[in-house]
Amino acid sequence: MSQHGMGLDDIAIARLAERIETAQTYATPIRKLTDDYPEMTVADAYRVQTALRRSYEARGQRVVGWKAGLTSRPKMLQMGVEQPGIGFLTDAMARPENTVISLSDMIHPRAECEIAFVTGAELAGHVTREQVLAATDYIQPSVEIIDSRFTGFKFDLESVLADNSSSARFISGGRPRRPGSIDLRTIGTVMELNGEIVALGASAEVLGHPADAVAMLVGVLHDMGEPLPAGSFVMSGAITAAVPVKPGDCLTARFLDMGSISVRFGE
Ligand code: 0L1
Ligand code: MG
Question: Cβ neighbours of residue 69 under 8 Å, at least 6 residues apart?
Answer without folding.
Answer: 75, 84, 85, 86, 87, 146, 160, 165, 166, 167, 237, 238
